[in-house]
Each structure stands twice: as structure tokens, then as C-alpha cells.
Amino acid sequence: MEGLWKALFLQCNERWASRGLTQQAGWEEFYLRLEKEFQRFAELLWRLYGSRPDFAYQVETIIANLFTAFASRPAYL
């Protein structure tokens, strides 16, 4: 992961931990996938929302919501 995206990823990690997400069941599996795709996700989102002053917050919130959906998915998925 490149510098800017790595810094954003680390910042988001701190916030996810403070929200208790990192201690929930399923986080490790989700995190492994997220770590591989975070830069691509952030770059694509940057094209849409990069000029917003709350870009980092939006990334953090979207991924927190993605994790909630991931953790709530049916077992067959």
C-alpha cells in the first residue's frame, strides 16, 4: 500500500478499534480481505469524494457499514 493510503488505512484502523469493530467476530477474515483491496477502494472513492473535507470519515464509515453487513450475512454466503 502506498504512503497516503497506508496512512489513511492506519487512521481508520484506530477509529474502527475505538468503535469496538476489531474485537467482533468475523473482523479478522474481513480485515484480511480489506487489507488487500483497501488502496483500490480508496482510490476509486477518491475520484468521487476526494474533494470533500470529510473524505477520511466517509471511508471509515463506509467500511464500518460494510463490516456490519459482512458480519450479518447468512452462513451460506
Tell me what the structure shows.
It comes from Gracilinema caldarium. This is Amylosucrase. With 77 residues, the protein is mostly helical. The radius of gyration is 13 Å and the shape is globular. Helix 1 crosses helix 3 (55-72). The chain has three helices and no strands. Helix content is 74%, strand content 0%. The protein has one domain.
Topology (SSEs and partners):
Layout: H1 3-18, H2 27-49, H3 55-72
Would you summarize the structure shown here?
With 77 residues, this protein is an all-alpha fold. Helices cover 74% and strands 0% of the residues.
SS element count, helices: 3
Uncertain segments of ≥5 residues (pLDDT<50)? Answer: none
Question: Ends: how far apart?
Answer: 28 Å
What is the β-strand count?
0
Helix content: over 70%
Number of domains: 1
Q: Summarize the helix and strand pattern as letters.
A: HHH
Largest sheet: none
Strand content bin: under 5%
Shape: globular
pLDDT average, as an integer? 93
Structural class: mainly alpha
How big is the Rg?
13 Å
Protein name: Amylosucrase
Organism: Gracilinema caldarium
Keywords:
77 residues; mainly alpha; Amylosucrase
